[in-house]
Amino acid sequence: MQNTIAQFAIIICMVMLTGCDWFDDKAEVAPEHEAFLLTDRHPQNVKLQQQLANTLSNEQLYQRALSLWPVAYRELNVPTSLGQARIIVAGPVDAQPVVLLHGMHANSAMWYPNVATLAEHFRVYAVDDLLGSGGSQASADISDMSQLVRWYQELFEQLQLDSIHLVGASRGGWQAVAIALAESKIESSRIQRLVLLSPAQTFAWVEFSTDLLASIFFTLNPERAKVQDSLQSVSSRPELIHPVYLDQYVAALEHDPVPDLIMAMRPFSEQQLQQITVPTLVMIGDEDMMNDQDSLEQAKKLLPQAHTLQVKNAGHFLTVDQAELVNNEVVRFLSK
């Protein structure tokens, strides 16, 4: 028995040291997406966790954070009119597609607390935004948000996604609304259901607060040693955020503290919101500095098929603060 335990311990140590792939199988890739497929880099991404953050490039920090995804995934590199788009895919290849749009100063790695549950039920497409810190790379000037909206629609066409659920967090929530508006103007919208997770500046201007001021100050003066304290303004449970994710988060702030087009994110008009007729779930935290109960009231008043929920003990980062609850609510809503 002791020999068996010792052998098992040796195997575990070898796996940890070599960065072996823990996944029993690989994420399937649809035949129409084979041309976009990158070489599987998960084993190399895991190995990066053994290295100090200050010895890695921003690209390596991103790949390192992506290794936090607890499910088999593959990366796609899709050429577009504005540059290369990076999409992370997971889940059954024949399941209903769900497209994930991340928040500001973030990338698809941010979905690590949520993707396992989503990928059980759906085919997940997590898109690295051209204005984010992930793998997408712009090759053209982007002067307004309408270009980004068209870029997402181009991506849907390239990936042959004719029917999707769209999930956006923070700035990704704002973008999801803009995309839904654009889709509402075409003959057959691709979007079947919409989920907005603490959408930034979507229903009203963000009110000035000490938390907002603290968040802005840290964004302009990021320090890795102070990130845990600073995140208390946006998260009710910052201790849950993985250190590997925080390493690339701080690096992203240092590289681009004020993302392009931030001033273009203005609240949508009542007339615009009334045009979104697809079933829409709006979730915010009860300690959310971007939204409050008035945001939910606006959603219920203006969105024809609004479902709203305020999550207790959660801040703006509710996908981390109450990951299990958020995951279950999103799956329940999208499965209707």
Structural commentary:
This protein is α/β, with parallel strands linked by helices and about 325 residues long. The protein has a single domain, classed as 3-Layer(aba) Sandwich (Rossmann fold). Strands 1, 2, 3, 4, 5, 6, 7, 8 and 9 form a 9-stranded mixed sheet that branches. Strand 6, helix 6 and strand 7 form a beta-alpha-beta unit. Helix 3 runs antiparallel to helix 9 and helix 5 crosses helix 6. It is globular and about 50 Å long. The N terminus is likely disordered.
Residue share in helix: 25-40%
Whole-number radius of gyration?
Answer: 20 Å
Largest sheet: 9 strands, mixed
Q: Terminal Cα separation, in Å?
A: 50 Å
CATH superfamily: Alpha/Beta hydrolase fold, catalytic domain
Query: Class, according to the CATH hierarchy?
Result: Alpha Beta
**Spans where pLDDT lies below 50 across 5 or more residues:** 1-22
Hey, roughly how much beta strand do the residues contain?
15-25%
> Number of helical runs?
13
Integer average pLDDT: 90
List the domain count as a whole number: 1
Tell me what the CATH architecture is. 3-Layer(aba) Sandwich
**Principal-axis shape:** globular
**Which structural category do the helix and sheet elements fall into?**
alpha/beta
The count of DSSP E runs of length 2 or more, i.e. the number of strands, is 9
CATH topology: Rossmann fold
User: Order of SSEs, N→C?
Assistant: HHHEEEHEEHEHEHHHHEHEHH
